[in-house]
DNA sequence: AAATTAATCAACCGCGACTGT
DNA sequence: AACAGTCGCGGTTGATTAATT
């Protein structure tokens, strides 16, 4: 049958597939990776689409060689965090975990081993052991710091991104991000006091009078795309009519 | 110039965490 | 509490390109 999973395409992406994915996300945003390919006309599974978008097509993905500064950040971060590529990548705006991981294995691993004290060279920190090699007594502190992206994500527009990593969800409106100059990932923030930050953010993004952000959005349990949330103002921000009628750029 | 080897990096896979029902 | 669906992460693979013989 044509809808069989075995019919799903694998391997390299064509320019046409890329364009389909970009166009779809620009128009409708990211709502559900596993369902999206069907609507976007792509014979791919959601995982493949997500990976392609995150690692290659997303507008803020940085291409090109790593700078010396970036190398240093990776080396230092890896010594603290181990193979937590995502955490390391979050310190390098525009770089993906895949990029960082590849770069580590192809460029930096040997150097890191070379500079390690002899007593440590027999230990892991390579791809066979994913566990970080924490040595300090303040491990928790280090981890906490590593999760606080606000300290080091330069150019990050969102003041409370990643504060609540376990309960985050993402709303994306890529349609206008080119014009506005930033990406629009919104991680739900359950931390107190951030409603003002969110209001400020939306004021800047959509300087529209009477646009209200309901306090309910700060509730972790409130999913703006859930069935019963269609009267939710946050949902309206992201639906097409809103974009067409209010936002200045198409 | 051709063959071989090494380096690179995009993409896949499996798993665990999280969330909703 | 159990289950299913979704997402993100880290390890690994394999195709392509570059360098070397």
TrEMBL record:
Keyword check for Repeat: yes
Biased composition (Polar residues): 119-131
Places the protein is found: Nucleus
InterPro entries: Homeodomain-like_sf, Myb_dom, Plant_SW-associated_TFs, SANT/Myb
Keywords for this protein: DNA-binding, Nucleus, Repeat, Transcription, Transcription regulation
Regions annotated as coiled coil: none
A GO MF term: DNA binding
Region (Disordered): 114-133
Domain HTH myb-type: 5-57, 58-112
Keyword DNA-binding appears in the UniProt entry: yes
Main localization (coarse): nucleus
Positions of transmembrane segments: none
CDD domains: SANT
One term under GO cellular component: nucleus
Protein name: Homeodomain-like protein
Protein's organism: Deinandra increscens subsp. villosa
Top-level taxonomy: Eukaryota, Viridiplantae, Streptophyta, Embryophyta, Tracheophyta
């Amino acid at each position: 049958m044509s809808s069989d999973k075995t019919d799903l395409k694998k391997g390299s992406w064509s320019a046409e597939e890329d364009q389909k994915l970009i166009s779809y996300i620009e128009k409708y945003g990211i709502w559900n990776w596993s369902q999206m390919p069907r609507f976007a006309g792509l014979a791919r599974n959601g995982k493949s689409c997500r990976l392609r978008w995150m690692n290659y097509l997303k507008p803020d993905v940085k291409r090109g060689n790593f700078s010396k500064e970036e190398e240093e950040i990776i080396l230092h971060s890896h010594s603290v965090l181990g193979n937590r590529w995502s955490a390391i990548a979050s310190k390098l705006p525009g770089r993906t975990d895949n990029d960082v991981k590849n770069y580590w294995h192809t460029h930096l691993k040997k150097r890191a081993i070379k500079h390690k004290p002899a007593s440590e060279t027999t230990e892991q920190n390579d791809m066979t052991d994913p566990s970080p090699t924490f040595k300090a007594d303040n491990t928790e502190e280090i981890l906490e710091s590593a999760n606080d992206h606000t300290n080091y994500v330069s150019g990050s527009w969102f003041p409370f991104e990643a504060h609540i990593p376990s309960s985050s969800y993402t709303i994306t409106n890529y349609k206008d991000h080119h014009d506005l100059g930033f990406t629009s990932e919104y991680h739900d923030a359950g931390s107190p006091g951030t409603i003002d930050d969110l209001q400020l953010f939306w004021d800047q993004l959509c300087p529209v009078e009477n646009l209200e952000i309901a306090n309910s959005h700060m509730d972790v349990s409130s999913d703006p795309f859930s069935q019963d949330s269609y009267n939710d103002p946050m949902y309206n921000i992201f639906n097409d009519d809103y974009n067409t009628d209010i936002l200045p750029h198409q």
